[in-house]
Specification:
With about 130 residues, this protein is of the alpha+beta class. The chain contains 4 helices and 4 strands; from the N terminus they run βαββαβαα.
Length: about 130
């Protein structure tokens, strides 16, 4: 019996599409994963961003990450379906090994100390709110 492993699929959907079409493309990818025997555990939709270089003559992409568990042979079947979807500019499926997950935990730990611009804005808002009280 094949054991399920943790994978992450990073997607770039054509950013010029309407929000409804993008939502349908996201639902389609999740549906393909579940129909092929995978289980979606986490979805992170980053949103529209400018691409570093034109991809299929498009410069705006809608970025998303989907974490899921699946058996190894299922990945080839999922990729076979995603390869022919016109809305997808790019996709990449990687296996999340224990070493990679450990590294992510360490990065999260230090990112809290260093902070991102969003964290700084949130901290400022919280500080201003506490001063008003």
């Amino acid at each position: 019996m094949e054991t399920n492993k943790l994978y992450e699929c990073t997607l770039i959907i054509d950013g010029g599409l309407q929000d409804e079409v993008i939502a349908e493309a996201m639902a389609m990818v999740q549906r393909v994963i579940t129909e092929k025997g995978g289980t979606v555990s986490h979805v992170l939709e980053i949103g529209r961003r400018k691409t570093a270089y034109p991809v299929k003559k498009k410069t705006i992409g809608y970025y998303a990450h989907i974490e899921f568990t699946a058996a190894t042979p299922v990945i080839a079947e999922i990729e076979k379906v995603l390869r022919y979807e016109e809305q997808l500019l790019r996709y990449l499926i990687i296996h999340l090994s224990s070493a990679l997950l450990e590294m992510r935990k360490r990065v999260e730990k230090y990112s809290v100390v260093i902070g991102s611009p969003e964290d700084a804005a949130l901290a400022e808002a919280n500080a201003a709110e506490s001063l008003q009280k």
